[in-house]
Amino acid sequence: MGKTTPNTRTRLRDKNAPKIPMNAYSRYFKANLSNSRREGKNTREVSSKIAKQWSTMTAEEKKPYFDEYNQEKEVYYERMKEYKETEQYKEFQKIKLEKKKRARRKSRLSVDKEECSSTSNLYVHPPNEIKIFSQEFLDYNKKQENTLKTLRNKKNNITNECNNIYEHFVFTNEQLKYLNESIKEKEEYYKELELFERKTLNDVLDALDKANLLELLKIKKQSITLEEILKIFTDSQTNKEIFNKIRQSFKGLHFDFSQILFEETK
Prior knowledge:
single chain; flat; disordered C terminus; HMG_box_dom; DNA-binding; DNA binding; coiled coil; HMG box domain-containing protein
């Protein structure tokens, strides 16, 4: 056996817990393992061969293995449910929780050690004995002062970067607000435009209906659009009598649609 390193994690196993049943493939693998070994192949070749056989099997051929697994799985769940009520299970959970806590403490300690080792290089450790106001004392203070200046500069740089990021965030947030307001305004505008277009279409159709022109122009109220009506009017300009009737029917509208028609057909 190889040497265990400090980072090696051993998984706790509850020896008293019910045994987890093998899945369908594991059952097939176990059943065919001895036959494949007789052929003198190594473990990798045997595993590869059995895996290929399993992948080519039909659902009907795999069914017995799945049936056995499902039956044992139901029994396992029942036994596990009963086992969770025992004192042995509760004791194991306590041990498991305590191990997690120890692992977390070790992790925090290792992080603290790394932080200490990384920051210790910033400071000059004082000698064991320093005479006050001696040259050695003054040199030491000067080094410490330089270290503090370096740290202050770093702090100021980080503060400036944070301020820049915050200003950028505020600016971006304002831009987003402006965009949202613009989107809302455009949505309201398009809604009003849609309502206006719908009202215009209804008014035009009503005017044509009163003038008995719907059947003449073969217009169906339910499926026609304003653009299609304009096209029909444009095509009808060859017949001056119908065209004049159309223009006359638009005189009572809430806007001068006849002027629009005239511009379209000019």
